[in-house]
Amino acid sequence: MDSTATPSPPPPALDRIRVGSAPDSWGVWFADDPAQVPWRRFLDEVSEAGYAWIELGPYGYLPTDPDLLLEETGSRGLRVSAGTVFTALHRGPAVWEETWEQVSRVAGLARATGAGHLVVIPSFWRDDRTAEVIESHELTAEQWRHLASGMERLAREVLDVYGMTIAVHPHADTHIDTEAHVERFLDATDPALVHLCLDTGHYAYCGGDSVKLIKTYGERIGYLHLKQVDPAVLAGVVERGTPFGPAVAQGVMCEPPTGVPALEPVLTAAQGLGVDLFAIVEQDMYPCPPGKPLPIARRTRAFLRSCGA
């Protein structure tokens, strides 16, 4: 070994990026499912893996009593960054009351535990477990108008009532998925109200380029989910038209840094926005053996530290 060789410079400090993880990375998709790890084990292990921030996951998985949840997270050095809701606002005003009832539960708990963000996922056009086609995968012009106006209304109400911002999550098998759909949605909504939760894995799954999106619509990025896709598995998923749920069971979402997109350029581009951003690790792997998540979580946290986060 050449002792005179110049050592590699350390990675740039990503001091605007706050890294966390979520129940999703422990195989949790539902409030109550015997295939999932118990919530106390999740909290123990996410803390042990080196994360300081978590999301609520599906409402009802973690305690819904704010005092109990604060006690359980605080004792483990954890804080809550966001809650998550699923919406079908493209169906128009008729679904508003049902939507707001769900939002109120989740946003109320998230706010009570100190979170400032609500991640909003559009409804699926096909069932992510049974593959049943629920509705057309393309929205009509009227449905696009309902979607845009509904998200703006939701953003105003969540801000006014809870003091939180929404971050709309493009997601596989929903109506906001591909680059074209994401751009249409962003162009149709008020930048001051509606922000985006860029999920690097879902965007790659649907053919999008996360770095390009950050550079083009940087002012709209309000939140990040970090995950990667296995290109070989994805090719088979696309070829066979496999729904998202079975694709996850096949391992389409993989452990960083083995997949795409490369996360270092994404994090660097996000840091370049000059704003504080949460970057929450979400490696979809429902269902999974209970002993699988923790070693992956440890390795992923170490990898992100090597990137400067």
UniProtKB/TrEMBL annotation:
It comes from Streptomyces triculaminicus. Residues 43-305 form the Xylose isomerase-like TIM barrel domain. This is TIM barrel protein.
